[in-house]
Specification:
Elements lengths: L1 H16 L8 E3 L1 E2 L17 E3 L13 E11 L6 E10 L5 H12 L4 E9 L7
Antiparallel strand pairs: 1-3, 2-5, 4-5, 4-6
């Protein structure tokens, strides 16, 4: 189950941050399965901030505003496996990043994991 969550999170991070962004914002980017400092309460001295523009892809035609996200994923079977993920995302008209992540996690884990919280914010280091 953890392997499915890890794969889903890595895939989601890649999808979310590989779109060119407009304005600059710094967010925490981490996964509690890979770094225990990224738990429910983040250890900000152990995890550095990431400039979301470092994911900039200048070959793309469009530029979107970016924001930070904090996502909580739980084992749907009640085994108390909880994963926290923080990262950068984009604001695209008609696109809801949280809805996309919820459906992606559900699909990639065959329903074994569910997003129980997805919070977005639009200022530096707000996804603590």
């Amino acid at each position: 189950m953890l392997l499915y969550i890890r794969h889903a999170l890595i895939t989601t991070i890649f999808i979310v941050v590989s779109i060119q962004q407009g304005t600059s914002i710094k967010c925490y980017v981490c996964n509690s399965n890979m770094n225990s400092s990224c738990g429910e309460i983040i250890n900000t001295t152990a995890i550095s901030a990431t400039d979301c523009n470092s994911y900039n892809r200048p070959t793309q035609e469009y530029s979107y505003d970016i924001f930070c996200q904090k996502i909580k994923i739980e084992d749907a079977e009640g085994h108390n496996n909880i994963t926290f993920m923080r990262g950068c995302s984009v604001q695209i008209p008609g696109y809801d990043a949280c809805d996309d992540i919820e459906s992606t996690i559900g699909r990639l884990t065959d329903g074994a994991a569910v997003v129980t919280s997805c919070v977005t914010c639009a200022h530096d280091l707000c996804n603590i």
